[in-house]
Amino acid sequence: xxxLLAWLAALAAPMARASAADGAPTSAAAHPAPVIxxxxxxxxxxxGVPPGHGWVDLLAQKITxxxxxxxxxxxxxxxxxxxxxxARLPRALAMHAPRILMLELGxxxxxxxxxxxQAQANLGQMIGLAQARGxxxxxxxxxxxxxxxxxxxxxxxxxxxxxxxxxxxxxxxFLMASVALKPEFIQADGLHPNERAQPLxxxxxxxxxxPLLSPMAHLAAHHGAHLGAPPRAPAARGPR
Length: 240
Prior knowledge:
alpha/beta; disordered C terminus; Rossmann fold
């Protein structure tokens, strides 16, 4: 649990490197394939991991290797809050017109003890903005350590499920589920997931993302939205 608290605390401090913080594609070769926009904090920005080895970079490689017609854009910023993300998202949506938005924010709000309702409202506005532009949203959750109090940690964790249900989203309940309490997957600073951990982060996300990559998923999402019915969310993976 000490390790879990340590890596969570690191999210709140500005980091020297943010992977493609300006929204640049993870691949140098731009092409007209639909975009998967990853919008998160240092866990998705790949702090302390060699370039090209963060879980978002591995995702881009996997999508190419398996023949999916998508390109990955990483617009994650270390230290980002839901308020900061909400301020940045309209420009990122306009610039990249993503087919899929992978939204991984909230930990820094929790670390500052901000009201859960405020973080939930900010995330809800981001989800609404993305859906209004025709993007499907995959919500990636974070958990707070127990020393924040049972009520707060429970409400914070429940926030992601409530948002997923309300907006008809695919949900990954906890990105760090497989590495948070394992020292062998944490960097020497005791704070950040190391290079060995990155494939495990991807493995946590991939089963929920993969169903969204098929053309039929996007046709179903389009017609479901037109008819007023939210798209069916794939089964969530991870701890409850």
